[in-house]
Amino acid sequence: MTAPFLAEAEALRDELVAIRRDLHMHPELGFQEFRTSRIVAEQLSQLGYEVITGVGKTGVVGLLQGGQAGSERVVLVRVDMDALPIHEENDVPYRSQTPGLMHACGHDAHVAIGLGVARLMMKHRDQFPGTLKLMFQPAEEGVGGAVAMLKDGVLKGPDVDVALSIHVSSNHPVGMAVVRSGPIMAAADKLEIVVHGKGGHAAQPEQAIDAVLVASHIVVALQTIVARNVNPDDVGVVTVGSIAAGNAGNVIAETATMRGSIRSFTEEVRVLLHRRIEEIATGVAAALGARAEVTIERGTDATVNAEGPTRVMHAAAAAVVGEENVNTTYRTTGAEDFAMVLAQVPGNYFMIGARSDEKGFNFPHHNPRFDIDEACIPHGVAILCDAAVRSLKGEG
Ligand SMILES: [Zn+2]
Ligand SMILES: [Zn+2]
User: Fold this and answer.
1) Which of 55, 130, 293, 347 is a Cys-bridge partner for 392, taking CB atoms 3.0 to 4.6 Å apart?
2) What is the CA(229)–ligand 1 centre distance, in A?
């Protein structure tokens, strides 16, 4: 099997690396991607795309009509653009020029990949029917960029039939891809528990209800949910990441506030986790004479890949990296807001290996030393182009 776009994507490599490095030097936080989206809009216009800016604040949409008759499909290819509030510790010529901000998740590479896709798809527009819709999304890192673009109608006019997206992965060596059907990233919900006890003197516990002690019992009891309530074949995470209570060693705290994160791949497990957290927190508190107020805020859904588009992406990925280098089982309890797009239209979100132990590109995402092996950029371009063309022709 030959990869139809790989040679051309490799030929663009230096240019795309230059784009990625320029963006890396000028990182912008979610909804502040003014420079990045200006560059994207300019390049898309120059290529001949119909460009819509201001979709979801700093989001950009590019539209391209295929030159062939046939399928009227609309295929969306989405990349995200935002950086993180992390101070870069890499000593590279392209290090972040903005103190405290860094592309530590690889979204700079995603923009470069998106622009590479834009070029090759324009060049080959006579080889596919339908409409290609490029979605350059702001604010993926927990601040609602996908939802903002959805609210502004990114899936409408023309209505999207299939949505495709990519993430570089420092968990996988360059030359690998992860393409799997079903959930690939988890749903992420926010947890807050406020324990109301009764403050008092540290020396007279019998006159008080110790919120610190109650909170401690709740933390321990919450860990029985995954161990004892979730089917061992399913995945769930309940993390209490913060407890705030008390100000002095000689005072029994009246209240304790706990914050945490809840992860799941299926709605069934999600509902189970929410229910048991509520039952355990209120039940343990009541048993100890206190009261617990539980607030669970549903966040991003699980990122769930549909079967048809996943088959298409698998074929495209296998053509580029080889069938033996396509991982079909990996998934992670991280969250991804492309989930909100996939909740509305079928599609596939895949990962492309970007790790190189040899070159020292093996720090985790969101680490101040995160970096990628840029050889992954042409891989991403070639796979997305091939998958988009196949989808536009009606495959999957
Ligand atoms: Zn990230
Ligand atoms: Zn990311």
Assistant:
1) 130
2) 30
